[in-house]
Amino acid sequence: MKRFFSNLNFTVGFTMSLVVVLAAVLSLVWTPFDADKMNAKNRLQGPSWTHPLGTDQYGRDTLSRVMTGAVSSIIVGLVTVAIGLSLGVLLGLASAYFGKFVDEVIMRISDLLFGFPAVLTAILITSILGPSMINAMLAIGIFYIPVFARLTRAVAMTLWEREFITAARAGGVGEWTITWRHVLPNILSPLLIQGTVQFAVAILAEASLSYLGLGTQPPTASWGRMLNEAQTFMSRAPWMAIFPGLAIAWAVLGFNLLGDGLRDTLDPKMVRMR
User: Fold this and answer.
1) Staple partner for 88: which of 149, 150, 200, 219, CB 3.0–4.6 Å?
2) pTM for the whole structure
């Protein structure tokens, strides 16, 4: 842990990410006000002691909704990375193991998916399946599959040429046993780094979809949805957009810095450079 926290990027990223996680966990048991309760008397109030981040057009407390929106962002990040990681690792290992025709098919499908931006792919899928948080997670997760597949394939193909793999083969160890016992554990570090970075991208993608009305649906709080609702009141109540926007920027920056810190600490090449 001392080695991790000696890295500035990791320390700052870990602290910022921890704030987001703690806000989400706290919102499950307590928020200053009911995040979905409307109160016409308090509508469009500016920041005050009672409502530190103000209220929206329905009189709902912005701080409570920002805290609750963190739950949606974290759930989307976890589920989408899990989808991309599980299927991507399997496809990447299969591509590196079988090679030739299997490798060519998997990589060309990956190229096809990479031809479309993540948000555009998500918009296409959610337009077909319908707007919802689940469909948004499915759409983002599908885009992540080739990301992890390519990473797994690249690292695995390098490992297959290493001396300890040759020694395992000479000892009579089967190919699949080598894959799961020796290759997979040695690619966990780059996968962890990539997963942390993609977690940040997932938060941004979910906010984009919710802003467009294709992600988390009301009355569930979502940072992107809050920005969508705030655009009509920008001149009258700018805090409605400022605080959800800051929450998105904080979370994305925090998880990006955390990923950079993990890379700096876990990547042997980066260690040698330092």
Assistant:
1) 149
2) 0.90
